[in-house]
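Here is one chain, start to finish.
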Amino acid sequence: MATREITKRGSRGNGKEIALGKRGVSSWVQLGPASGRLFLEGLDQCIKNGKEDKWEKGWKEKGRSYSMVHEANKAGCFLRLGVVDAEEKRYGICIPKGRGEKGGWSVMAEVVRDLIASLD
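Its structure:
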């Protein structure tokens, strides 16, 4: 079974990072206050909806372009959050639905709520 680690770290300025790691490989994205709230809206929508419909949402904040995609395949449902910065560098994380309230979207939503509270 794969182990995942979700952490929040301080960053320069008002941004915070949400990091998701798996088996020594990690990927991260930096979210500002507005992006954190939009990401949380998408997570909450997925948790409440429970459907496997595909949808995509995009927005911009502080010179970065964000995209959030909800998809499903044979492995299950997942959210993909992608970021392209001003230098055209791409970053992304994939968050699986998880099972119950002990992983996946529920855990990520809890971390993002804490992050937003720390920015207010």
